[in-house]
Design a protein that fits this description.
With 132 residues, this protein is an alpha/beta fold. It has three helices and eight strands, in the order E-E-E-H-E-E-H-E-H-E-E.
Length: 132
């Protein structure tokens, strides 16, 4: 299954509530995004970053700009789905620095047995589950 998953970390938001790019906000001297990137690497994946700030290139991972700007996380999901050749995409947020390896491993293990699609359209959330 490992080869059929690509991992993308969203960090392209406006950070309107924080006033600064939250992915680059320092926690213990490191940008917040570093923590989730490291966790993804520890479970054996090479993450890609979806961001519109060239400063992310300095982190040493591929950076993709939003294909459609001003669409929030759904725009990031569209960018990830447009860029992947994998059967599965794991989309994570840069502002989850404390996510554990065990959590990612569990989500990956469950992704084959329980496929779930979630989207928001015109203020409504739609969830489709496909059980194998």
């Amino acid at each position: 299954m490992k080869e059929s998953i690509e991992v993308f970390v969203l960090s392209g938001g406006k950070s309107s509530r924080m006033g600064e790019d939250k992915g680059l906000l320092k926690i213990n001297g490191l940008p917040m995004i570093n923590y989730i990137l490291d966790t993804v690497k520890q479970v054996g994946y090479s993450p890609q970053i979806i961001a519109n700030d060239a400063e992310y290139l300095e982190l040493g991972f591929p950076v993709l700009e939003d294909k459609i700007r001003e669409m929030g996380p759904m725009g990031g999901l569209f960018t990830a789905l447009s860029a992947t050749q994998a059967n599965h995409v794991m989309l994570l947020s840069c502002d989850t620095p404390n996510i554990r390896r065990q959590t990612l491993t569990y989500l990956i293990a469950q992704s084959e047995a329980h496929k779930t699609n979630v989207c928001r359209h015109k203020g409504k959330i739609y969830i489709d589950r496909y059980l194998s």
